[in-house]
Amino acid sequence: MSETRPHAIVIGSGFGGLAAAVRLGARGFRVTVLEKLDAPGGRAYVYRQDGFVFDAGPTIITAPYLLEELWALCGKRLADDVDLRSIDPFYQIRFDDGTVMRCTADLDAMRAEVRRIEPEDVAGFDRFIRDSEAIYNIAFLQQAAQPFHKS
Questions:
Q1: Whole-angstrom Cα distance, residue 62 to residue 58?
Q2: DSSP letter (8 states) at residue 57
Q3: 94/53 Cα distance (integer angstroms)
């Protein structure tokens, strides 16, 4: 019996490649995912050497609703398969002098951290947040859902 569904080949099994494969599969395509490494992950790949584990990429997930959307496309619930937990701080930056900056989603707490390390940088932090919001609003909210082949 010959397979009549269209066949898509996705190159790379990072978050983007896996998301594309899920979306294509949900639309009825047969999907083959090709990956050059020995395991999926892309930037989220994990390297192991001499008993150590090195995280190759994103250590936090900033848009869990995108994962929920993928599960929903398959008629499933993310929470049934994955236990995502919010952590605070979500990471720490350690400087050469031993100073530690605790990064959190709480903007007031982040301003306090920036002020603690370098009071003159608070205004720059606020500009960064404003610029990031503007970029997000255009690139993500307005353009991300638009097909690239249409103007």
A1: 9
A2: S
A3: 19
3-state secondary structure of 75: coil
pTM of the predicted model, to two decimals? Answer: 0.71
Structure confidence at residue 95 (pLDDT) = 94
Residue with tokens 């599969």: 25
Could you tell me if 88 and 102 are in contact, meaning their C-beta atoms sit under 8 angstroms apart? no
Q: pLDDT tens for residues 65-86? A: 889 999 999 999 999 999 998 8
How far apart CA 44 and CA 59 sit, in angstroms, is 8
At residue 108, φ and ψ (nearest 5 deg) are -65, -40
Is beta strand 46-49 parallel, antiparallel or unpaired with respect to 52-55?
antiparallel
- Cis amide bond preceding 40, omega within 30: no
How far is C-alpha 118 from the chain's CA centre? 29
Query: What are 105-123's pLDDT values in tens digits?
Result: 999 999 999 999 999 999 9
138 with 145: CB under 8 angstroms? no
